[in-house]
Amino acid sequence: MLFQELDNIVLIQLSDMDSNVYLIGDTIIDSGTGFNFTRLRDVLRVLKKDLKDIKQIINTHGHFDHIGGNGYFMNAKVFIHKLDAPIIEKGDTELSAADFFDGKLYPRNVENKLNDGDRITTKNMDLEVIHTPGHTSGSICLYNEKDKILFSGDTVFANGVGRTDFINSDPKALAESLERISKLDIKKILPGHGPVFNKKNISAVMKNVNDDFF
């Protein structure tokens, strides 16, 4: 299954290598590697959308599997935390881990350099930026308080947490980030890879993560 509709959100899963791509109206959260352009274009066509219809890209962090597809959305403004913004603006192959994916990253302007607590408005929901360093220094989660949904990027998954062996990773910072988001009122977590977890999973996942780190 390439896509799954979740109320006002569409989860697009292009391949095991790509990040999850979340479509919310004219906004996407993360863009994958860019290697599976044809699949992405075809999914958008099924959803009666075109690449030019996307006006905002919110990147949860600066790794290639989440930002490599940004270049297909030339009408969109790019949002990313200010600490990871230079990765995109410089086309930083090392910090983006592009070489790991055999990919190329070209410099692109970042229109919106995010800070903790910033709010982003989409057509279907409002999102609060939560700075969750650890996987990268500029990793973020996005929280919709109304529906109690958390887009977690690579901070936490259904079965674990993001790697902390990259140049700009910090295990202690990740532990603190996990502690912070564990206190939020969340019904559903939409991660950067793998399946969505529902309300029943959240407590168990957070307990396992806390047992590993604290």
Task: Itemize the secondary structure elements and their pairings.
Elements: E1 3-6, E2 9-12, E3 21-24, E4 27-29, H1 37-46, E5 56-58, H2 64-67, E6 77-81, H3 85-90, H4 93-96, E7 112-114, E8 119-121, E9 126-131, E10 140-144, E11 149-153, E12 156-157, E13 160-161, H5 171-181, E14 188-191, H6 199-213
Parallel strand pairs: 4-5, 5-6, 6-7, 11-14
Antiparallel strand pairs: 1-2, 2-3, 3-4, 8-9, 9-10, 10-11, 12-13
Helix pairs in contact: 5-6
In short:
With 214 residues, this protein is an alpha/beta fold.
Distance between the termini: 37 Å
What order do the helices and strands follow? EEEEHEHEHHEEEEEEEHEH
Radius of gyration: 16 Å
Q: Please identify the top-level CATH class.
A: Alpha Beta
Query: What is the annotated CATH architecture?
Result: 4-Layer Sandwich
Low-confidence runs (pLDDT<50, min 5 residues)?
Answer: none
Number of helices: 6
* Sheet having the most strands: 7 strands, mixed
| Tally of individual domains | 1
Globally, the shape reads globular
CATH superfamily: Ribonuclease Z/Hydroxyacylglutathione hydrolase-like
Strand content: 15-25%
